[in-house]
């Protein structure tokens, strides 16, 4: 569907991004410069990388999928919860990470619950960082734009992701994220008004959805358990290593706070636009998977040149999200798992292992992503496993003022996550989604477990 001119623009953009990554690779000296930019990330780059990471291939194309499938109620349950939850994160909790943690979320878990819980949390968090739905979304773009097999487009995207994350570290990721955010913002600003008018506006939507009234019902399109599922998934931001990494890397707690509040305004606008886009896909391409339908709709509407900009924006958003999460995943394995199991590893050793882990995760991601036809499904699975067991212990470590013990952290984390994995293998028939029940299990076990044993600080004092 793309012309020679479009393809030249796409290739030029890719070369430019690789040049930026190569430039910033020269600034990497050790783990701190690699993972948190020596805590010098300015407000502007923090805004750009937060927005771009959240609206990656899954956040952009996947949101269109969910809006097309679940309708307006999705906007209320998912978007309202997600953005309202970020206000206390921006004002109080995120800045604490900038002050309290050395590098990562497991460092906080270790201080509250001990080394074992920190390692288990790092393993579960590593699963969460496998946001391979971004590769799936890139495959959709490649199929529609070039009629390319999934492994071709997905493989190229994964190579770019690994090169950026391995070579440039967070600073290179943040700068390329800002570039991708610019492409995405321009593409959305241009394409959505054109699409809406060409499609026929709201009248066309209501006519097409006459036999599916739930799609246009802002409060009745989801069951109670499904609505709770989306609300709990939105809370994973409280245990999201990429978000806390940005706060840790910002040049001050104030800069991190201001960046997060700025992002809230952008996210609300983006969600409203993507919700409208999901409605348009239902009208124009009801016969296609929503993700592919979205790409086809835009490429059919835009002229030469602008189509290339849109493709760069979509694939670029997938790259910007995935390189951020693979950077976190590689660091989790090297620093928080290997580094805590082995005494005093050198900075060079940790840096080498982080980069090797990113390569391995990239290969695994390409294989896993090829098994899914809806990008948001893979996001939902990995997010739910972490949400079920990780949100309560991480949030508790940061904001709970009562007694915290290793037993409380361990029971809450393993109880919630293993309960959800159990339901994936042996599904429950009496609920649409088991995540709310597993989340409740994690909360109860946290409350009960913190009454057993002694806090980490007391145990350490007595051991000394």
Count of runs of 4 or more consecutive helical residues: 20
SS-based class? mainly alpha
- Could you tell me the radius of gyration in angstroms? 22 Å
Question: How far apart, in Å, are the first and last alpha carbons?
Answer: 69 Å
Unreliable stretches:
none
The percentage of residues in β strands lies in: under 5%
Brief characterization of the structure:
The chain is mainly alpha-helical. It has 20 helices and no strands.
Topology:
Blueprint: H1 4-25, H2 31-36, H3 43-54, H4 57-70, H5 72-100, H6 105-113, H7 115-128, H8 133-146, H9 150-199, H10 201-208, H11 224-234, H12 241-249, H13 253-284, H14 290-301, H15 306-341, H16 347-369, H17 375-399, H18 406-425, H19 435-449, H20 456-463
Would you mind describing this structure in some detail?
With 464 residues, this protein is mainly α. The chain contains 20 helices and no strands. The chain has helices spanning 4-25, 31-36, 43-54, 57-70, 72-100, 105-113, 115-128, 133-146, 150-199, 201-208, 224-234, 241-249, 253-284, 290-301, 306-341, 347-369, 375-399, 406-425, 435-449, 456-463.
Task: Give descriptors for this structure.
464 residues; mainly alpha; 0% strand; 20 helices; single chain; globular
